[in-house]
Amino acid sequence: MVHIRNTFIDSIGNTPLIKLKAASELTGCNIYGKAEFMNPGGSVKDRAALSLLQDAQEKKLISKGGIVVEGTAGNTGIGLGLIGNSLGYKTIIVMNDNQTQEKKDTIKNLGAELRLVPAKPYKDENNFVKIAGRLADELRPTNNNGVVWANQFDNVANAKGHYIGTGKEIWEQTEGKVDGFVCSSGTGGTISGVSNALKEKNKNVKICLSDPKGSALYSYIKNGELKSEGGSITEGIGSSRITKNFENAKIDDAYSIDDHEALPILYDLIKNEGLSLGTSCGINIAGAIRLGKELGPGKTIVTILCDKSDKYNSKMFNKSFLMEKNLPVPSWL
Ligand code: PMP
Question: pTM to 2 decimals?
């Protein structure tokens, strides 16, 4: 075991699996969460950010003094900003203005440039992803060290980071005894990389998408139609389209999870297990519980603990916000 790392980049990945007690007891399964919140930028997206930047370096698209532009729900921006700082890149983040203030502040406070834009659907020319792509094109002639659009949604270097990291680690940590893997999808990088890594080892590992309301991916997996209904306060997950990363995922089944099912799981975890997790984790763990009930006792199921609740204080612990939406409120608020 190497304890000293030369840069913080070397501490991305190799996260532990944590047994989720209540979820395991409820199902009779061993349900483990991969503690991605322990990455240095605080989320699963550090892996994607690193892999996207390594891809740009390998393709000689950027060198010290260059600029990285990206459209993100926040976590990828945090990862890119931190790694970019350590490599001498400037980072420009384009983000929807409806994301939490906590994520906006984190991005600004690490020295990245933050451009907030009104949330628009992907088909709109002013969708944040498309704005980021155009901005990189506009800036490219102005910088000799390279201007890169990380393009996490459609650059499969994202999924590669999870294939060589997250997925391989889950296989090794469970000593190949994993029966199921469940997670949500934003870019699709995690579910694509992990599903390919696990299925390559054992095609019988069941892979399930856990999709929030308002996303069209559940209906796509169930009947091939991109259709959505309802909404969710979760951030960073759900999609109205099939990204290049998602396209390669090997998914057997899907669950559609309501915030009413996801939030109590998160509040119980804080109160009873000392785990304080972000909103997408609620969707993931709810899906893992559903799969556990389906597969029956004795199985091993893994999900992703993407980030911590501290990025969502203004939503998860905001009593009037929750009550306005008729959502459950933690008992201690
Ligand atoms: N949870 C959170 C909190 C995220 O920020 C993201 C990334 N947008 C995801 C889950 C989804 O991960 P992926 O992009 O790999 O599908």
Answer: 0.97
